[in-house]
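Final report, results section. Input specification for complex C-07:
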Amino acid sequence: MNAEKIPDIIIGRLPVYLRALQRMADNGIKTTSSQELGEHVGISAAQIRKDISQFGEFGKQGTGYSITYLLDKLREILKVDRIWDVALIGAGDMGHALARYQGFTNRGFHIVMVFDNNKEKVGRKIDNFVIEDADKMIERLKASNVKIAMLTIPATSAQSVTDKLVQAGVRAILNYAPISLNVPNNVKVQYIDPATHLQRMTYYL
Amino acid sequence: MNAEKIPDIIIGRLPVYLRALQRMADNGIKTTSSQELGEHVGISAAQIRKDISQFGEFGKQGTGYSITYLLDKLREILKVDRIWDVALIGAGDMGHALARYQGFTNRGFHIVMVFDNNKEKVGRKIDNFVIEDADKMIERLKASNVKIAMLTIPATSAQSVTDKLVQAGVRAILNYAPISLNVPNNVKVQYIDPATHLQRMTYYL
DNA sequence: TTGATTTTGTACAATTCGGTACAAGTCAGG
DNA sequence: CCTGACTTGTACCGAATTGTACAAAATCAA
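Structure output:
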């Protein structure tokens, strides 16, 4: 076990391992090797061994890794051995899709609030969520223990809303708006912008 | 100008620069510096200069970069100085959101087909798109010039559908299914999985 | 015109990251 | 028990990536 600072790039791969392992577990597989896992996720076996060994000796020579054990450890490392409350900001098409997405529950996340600044939408429901008024967002967040927000609003208002989220104590933002966000060092942002992702591939076509 | 192989990591940053520059241009700004652009996108000025200089000397000492000129060059490099036809596979919530997304048009992409394997959905419309039968996907794609697909289907069928896409000549896949895909070397995949992205941040909370 | 200021592109240095190779532990079968 | 096949964790090394620093070019104000 290594108590030093773990590089971001390694942390970034762990959720991919976690996802693949979870899938193997669902298929009833009990054990895997760095080799096999590597083939599933497209990463070299040595890389996987090195990444995992940053956190302890979880494998067994000759046998590989117990999937349930490794799952537990990875969930613990990534702090998804619990359920995080998440706020969804923006009830447009993308917000709707995320609100209705069934893939969060068994991966550590639970949407607890949905906000929109359109007064016509406020009070309406998406499935079980009642859309709340964005004007009340800061006070609602401050009174909650929400540390994670998903931002599905236009780029024009993304930075100002982000500032409010930070002010309200949010520490992690999944940003669907096509714009880079400026946040303090203690706040993390991940970007999802389909056009940007597509543009990362056209170069090679 | 350097004709050598450009690292993936640099190509990955160019769309971010492009997005920021496009935004500046929309705001009527004519010129920028690596310093200013860096502040917008959260990347060091030296890094930006080095990235851009891989492709030529586009800046001017003392002045910086002409935004429209740099935009043209980046679009050319990334091959988004044209419009790419894109196929959308899966007409669920996420597929709907993407089909209706207005952010593709001025960034080089145009959805031209939407498929679903649910016979009840086939023939229905999402805005102007008629949902087509997934059974006809391969032949429809082969008869088209579609090289890019967006996959918004369940993980269980993602690999088999991917194999069909590859067989039909697709060379770039934006995968929304929460699973790693296996593709030949000449096919690129980008992953969008909100739970994975969130899990990349919880470690730091 | 001149000197101060700005900014690029790049050489060089430092750091980070990934691949190779192997000792040592584990297991299955005879 | 013994042998052969597997597999981990890590030391070592080369490659890739980023940071530092500066010469040279361009601009601007006086």
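Residues 117 and 135 of chain B are 7 Å apart (CA to CA). The first helix of chain B runs from residue 8 to 26. This concludes the modelling results for the funded period.
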